[in-house]
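Service request form, structural biology core

Requester: graduate student, group of Dr. S.
Request type: structure prediction, single chain
Budget code: on file
Notes: please return the result as structure tokens.

Sequence provided:
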Amino acid sequence: METKFKMTPLEKKWVLYDVGNSAFTMLVSTIFPIYFNHLAGNAGISDVNYLAYWGYAASICTLVVAVLGPTLGAVADVKNFKKRIFTMFLVIGVAGCVLLGFLSSWIWFLGVFVLTKVGYSSSLVFYDSMLTDVTDAKRMDSVSSHGYAWGYIGSCIPFIASLVVVLGGDKVGLGMQATMVIAFAITAAWWFLSALPLLKSYEQKYYIEKRAHMVKESFVRLGHTFREIYKQKRIFFFLVAFFFYIDGVYTVIDMATAYGEALGLDTTGLLLALLLTQFVAFPSVLVMNRLAKKLNSDTVITICIVAYLCISIYAYGLDKQYEFWILAVAVGMFQGTIQALSRSYFGKIIPAEKSGEYFGLYDICGKGAAVVGTALVSALSQLTGRMNVGVASLSVLFVIGLVLFRVAVRMDAAGDGAT
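Core staff response, request fulfilled:
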């Protein structure tokens, strides 16, 4: 009989940071693009160009993290460095989140947004790599899934508070910018405070001893890691597949609200629909984690990729409010699961003492890969003048990701390139 899963105190503190950083993700997916649309509209920028500029900014963020991630990840594998670098990027992200509320220029807003998103995304490289220190391989799927599940439901608390301020601010005499200052500050405080228990308790169990010329040594180790991954076909093909399918997932996250805004859908309805996504995602991740225990994680990941392929095709014809609500529910059912199981799947097949390096590369193929999806949506929207064409193009990424992932699974089953 299956016993109820119970997390250790350290696992709970690790999960708590997911609760905190997910609030920022929620803000980026909902209120940020709405405020940027307001600033861009005041500057006379068209809806198509607004969507394109927002997509280009997201692409720049992910490109910067893709360049920084592996190098800093290699440095973070050195004893006692992972927490320090994590803290640095956490502070950059939190400070930038507060500052964004005070900006009234669309170009300055985009610039600071890029810096803030880089801080956020970079902190996740080191947070993800902490997974090998806070739990073991047998518990990894469950701990990772609980992180996403509680992250989704926990992020609703600051989001609802922010939503009350944004939608009700005019009734108490607050203008758009004043409500944004308060909303962004609420999210930043929630994010920072959720990190404190982890910062207090985390100890780096797996590491490489510090040597002279540490940065140079990190580049050398990184080169070795690239060669090792190419030889280990299981890891190599998983990362290539992950590059494509998670690119589509993150693009949906980054641009859903911007897409709805550009289509002229009601702002309040968009925000409430995306809030519904969080509530749907919470039980969905936990249910799918139980399914992964009965089947296996690669089968559940495959189901999620196919589901996202269907979602991207459905989005092509989306032009009504109720259709966006259907989209929000569908995304909530699979979004957390595909992220959680991909993270734990990778964590189980890599060397624990090199988790920083490997998760840096994982981030290139994950959040770094989103540069392709957001740029693809933005470019096709501008070239065709039809936003739905750009969004539907994401289906190509899911098809490629699905085929390559199944190749990786077959190689794994055959023992090809096992670590």
